[in-house]
Design goal:
The protein is an alpha/beta fold and 185 residues long. It has one domain: 3-Layer(aba) Sandwich (Aspartate Aminotransferase, domain 2). 29% of the residues lie in helices and 19% in strands. It is built from 5 helices and 7 strands; from the N terminus they run αβαβαβαβαβββ. It has a 7-stranded mixed sheet, with helices on both faces. Helix 2 packs parallel to helix 3. The radius of gyration is 16 Å and the shape is globular.
């Protein structure tokens, strides 16, 4: 097998390995440039309307916060939840959500504090109509990350997966049936 076919075969192997780390299907994964590109693709896939809102913690990773902040020009409110002494409380995230919340972005393990978010608890408490986007860049490869508890999972592989600078985007098709990003490839 040569060239391009080899490339696709290796991609399939990597996706199988990612599936075994996240309890998702290999077909749920795309290998992309970085986690930020995955965040942008997920954000671009939502049919935003004036009056919608997003929820993010103030200590979450900048690329997620900034991607959501850009939506304000479209009439989308970006609700930034303050951490309590650098600790993100799930209760505070949930309290910021309402009937107009379309997306909640959260980091599974915070790079600054090491706090791990209980994805099961968050997933079971959030309205099922809210897209739950989880950045697992600081947990994938270090600890169990159950992708069944989120709609989308992004990660950067150069951190704890210890490989070249590549991004991971996983779409949990069992939880979220609709995904139509503005860019593909």
């Amino acid at each position: 097998m040569a060239g391009y076919a080899n490339h696709w075969a290796m991609g399939s192997v990597v996706k199988q390995q990612l599936a075994s780390l996240t309890n998702l299907n290999a077909e749920d994964f795309a290998l992309i440039g970085n986690a930020s590109k995955g965040i942008a693709r997920v954000v671009s896939s939502v049919d935003w309307r004036v009056g919608d809102n997003t929820v993010v913690a103030d200590v979450d990773y900048a690329s997620g916060r900034f991607s959501l902040a850009r939506l304000t020009s479209m009439g989308v409110e970006n609700r930034v939840v303050p951490a309590d002494d650098n600790f993100i409380k799930i209760e505070d995230l949930l309290a910021a959500c309402d009937a107009q919340t379309r997306l909640l972005y959260i980091i599974h393990v915070n790079a600054h504090t090491g706090q791990r978010i209980d994805l099961k608890r968050l997933s079971e408490s959030i309205d099922p109509n809210v897209v739950l986007l989880v950045d697992a860049s600081h947990s994938l490869g270090v600890m169990p990350v159950d992708g069944n508890y989120c709609d989308f999972l992004v990660a950067s592989t150069y951190k704890f997966l210890l490989v070249t600078h590549t991004g991971v985007l996983a779409w949990n098709q069992r939880r979220n049936m609709g995904f139509n990003p503005l860019s593909v490839g």
